[in-house]
Write a structure and sequence with these properties.
Layout (H helix, E strand, L loop, with lengths): L4 H20 L1 H16 L4 E5 L2 H14 L11 E3 L4 H10 L7 H7 L5 E5 L6 H13 L2 E7 L11 E5 L4 H20 L1
Parallel strand pairs: 1-2, 1-3, 3-4, 4-5
Helix pairs in contact: 1-7, 2-7, 3-7, 5-6
Amino acid sequence: MPITDDDLLRQLSDVERVARHLRERLPEIRALGERIRAAIAAGGKVLTCGNGGSAAEAAHLATELLGRYKSNRPALPAIALNADGSLLTCIGNDFGYDDLFARQVSGLGRPGDLLLLFTSSGNSENLVAAAEAARAAGVYTAAFLGKEGGRLRGKCDWELLLPFPETARVQEGHLIALHLLSELLEE
């Protein structure tokens, strides 16, 4: 059955609902931006991670921080833990997929750093394990969640829940949120 214009308009209406939801969460997003700014000013770094499409969001944020968002400015310290294929296959093969990010957090994370986790379901064991490793290392945790938040909900210091059942809407909301953070950190 072909997709109609009405089908596409319904999707656009859903995107508008996501934007309205984020408007209500703007103070929380601003607070995370200030937390990131303070951590970087004190010598900390940002670690990001996610799986699948959420891995793309995690890498996107690290790129905006380390590279640039809109203007040339000093690089901000950020590492996407899901970006190194050799490392991921090493840890996955030698320790298991559930330890993919926790092992990196244990090796790279220091008190004063932040770990930003991106997930549309909140049920990935490797993200739950990463949050636990971060807590043990004294690393501040922030979760960008979707749907009901899954098993990761309630396990992080800061959370942004996008309570939408469609993965696409959650990922679009996470993209908008990371661009808002980038805007705040660009100053």
